[in-house]
Design brief:
Order of helices and strands: HEHEHHEHEEHEHEHHHHH
CATH architecture of the largest domain: 3-Layer(aba) Sandwich
Number of domains: 2
Distance between the termini: 72 Å
Strand order of the largest sheet: 3-2-1-6-4-7-5
Length: 259
């Protein structure tokens, strides 16, 4: 479908900035550009790239974006997925495959509704999309609170990267905005922890678990770490709770040292 009402550009791109779309190790510039085009179609402008295979900027992405310059000009580039989600408070991982992780599962419609509510409270959200060939790694999925799964034909569940972004963006655009942020607030609610705050806690905890020999044997460490992280992520920790957990770990270490 062709046609753009330029008089409405500012309304749709500024007022509906939307969640962050994070493409992890994307392989084709054409898919990056098509994803950018889909985002701007539905008022989403925050595109983040983690280690794009062919580098950035990419002329094929520009050609495929069909003048979605507002998105491409604002692209943020990251070396790791953890860095790309560091400032976010709610993260979804788009994947069609079971990862043997105990994580909540959400449809795009439910995710869009939740993200609308959270963003009305100034709690930034993002969706992780994996590379075209294999999708997200387990370590990428482990950084998310929730798995985002699209109900599709189970015998053919693979969706093109740009199509997946288009689908999520479309459902977001169709979801009603809360009337006011105040209506969405819960009494005495403190802010959820950001990914960076959670990552700092995980690093602290895992350092001490390594020191006491808990994360052993070495070949089982990656799976153990993911399971421990998922346990805390399911709790949807707030900033104050993360601070308390830091204190608990520190005091346990001090007690062990005294003994």
């Amino acid at each position: 479908m062709a046609g753009t009402d330029r008089s409405r550009d500012t309304v749709h791109t500024t007022a509906l900035r939307g969640p962050s779309m994070i493409l992890v190790r994307p392989q084709l510039g054409e898919n990056i550009g098509s994803a950018a085009r889909a985002m701007l179609n539905f008022g989403i402008t925050d595109l983040r790239l983690v280690n794009p295979r062919d580098g950035w900027p990419n002329v094929k992405a520009v050609n495929a974006a069909s003048k979605a310059a507002e998105v491409l000009d604002g692209v943020r580039l990251y070396d790791t997925t953890a860095a790309a989600v560091a400032d976010l408070r709610h993260v979804y991982a788009a994947t069609a495959r079971s990862r043997y992780m105990l994580k909540p599962l959400s449809t795009p419609r439910q995710a869009a509704s939740d993200m609308r509510r959270w963003m009305a409270m100034d709690e930034p959200c993002g969706v992780l999309f994996g590379p075209e060939r294999m999708g997200l790694h387990n370590d990428d999925v482990a950084l998310a609170d929730t798995v985002l799964s699209v109900p599709v034909n189970p015998a053919f569940a693979s969706i093109n990267l740009a199509q997946a972004v288009l689908l999520v963006a479309y459902v977001w655009f169709q979801t009603e905005v809360p009337d006011t942020a105040e209506e969405a607030l819960e009494p005495n609610r403190t802010p959820p922890a950001t990914r960076e705050e959670l990552e700092n806690f995980f690093t602290h905890l895992e350092r001490e678990l390594d020191a006491c020999g808990f994360l052993h044997p070495p070949e089982k460490r990656p799976a153990m770490v993911r399971n421990i992280r998922n346990l805390f992520l399911r709790a949807k920790l707030h900033q104050q709770e993360v601070g308390t957990l830091h204190g608990i770990v520190s005091e346990l270490v001090k007690g062990a040292d005294k003994n």
